[in-house]
UniProtKB/TrEMBL annotation:
Gene Ontology terms for molecular function: signaling receptor binding
Classification via InterPro entries: Dev_Signal_Modulators, VWF_type-D
Identification of the protein by name: VWDE protein
Segments forming domain VWFD: 159-220
Alphabetical keyword list: Disulfide bond, Signal
Length: 220
């Protein structure tokens, strides 16, 4: 919403100045920020959904709210076929509740966005975050769709560790050694999240040599 003003003399209205536009006011529901650039580093990024106009539900004061259903879509790269979404949300829907307006915000909700660590070197990818009204009962919002949010995910190289054959082990930081013991061992454990890998080694050398080989693993 904005105003356009044109000046002219009262005696000669046909001679008008160039129009001047006022600063626009966005009337509707929008995301802030309107675009995101994040990386595959596990960090959460806050996205605010706000309405710049009051949320009003005549006759429904006890259950007055606007529910937005959120969805993501991978747009991929121009040379690639779109795949699974490259971002994850903390919630599938948000509610905008009525309240007093402050500045340009009359109702707000938050959702966090995290890049999916896919362990694939697939380059930077673009995803789209969309919102639609879950139950558009109010005639004011019935045909309304908020603008999408463009999320660019920067690809980061991921670490690798290995245990192969009889077992030769290469750690994340490049150390190499052999393990010829029999049993079940902890191969890797994360200190920041619930992730670990166990490996089982059995005797594959028989009477000729004491050699152990990988025979199974379990991952959480």
């Amino acid at each position: 919403v904005f105003c356009t003003v044109t000046a002219f003399r009262r005696g000669s209205p046909e001679q008008q100045s160039l129009p001047e536009d006022s600063k626009g006011f966005y009337a509707g529901i929008k995301f802030l920020p309107e675009s995101l650039e994040i990386a595959e580093d596990g960090k959460e990024h806050v996205l605010t959904v706000l309405s710049t106009v009051p949320i009003a539900c005549p006759g429904q004061d006890d259950s007055c709210k606007i529910t937005l259903q959120l969805s993501t879509e991978d747009l991929g790269k121009s040379s690639q076929v779109p795949g699974p979404p490259d971002i994850a949300l903390s919630a599938c829907q948000v509610d905008l509740l009525p309240g007093p307006c402050s500045g340009s915000s009359c109702a707000a909700a938050r959702v966090t966005v995290t890049a999916v660590t896919d362990f694939a070197h697939d380059g930077n990818r673009v995803s789209r975050l969309s919102a639609r009204l879950a139950a558009p009962g109010d005639v004011l919002w019935r045909a309304y769709t908020p603008r999408d949010v463009k999320v660019t995910v920067r690809d980061l190289p991921t670490g690798n560790c290995y245990s192969f054959t009889d077992p030769h082990i290469i750690t994340f930081d490049g150390w190499r050694y052999d393990s010829h013991k029999i049993g079940t061992f902890l191969l890797s454990r994360s200190e920041s999240r619930a992730f670990e890998v166990h490996v089982r080694q059995w005797d594959c050398g028989g009477h000729r040599s004491a050699t152990a080989c990988n025979c199974g693993l379990a991952a959480r």
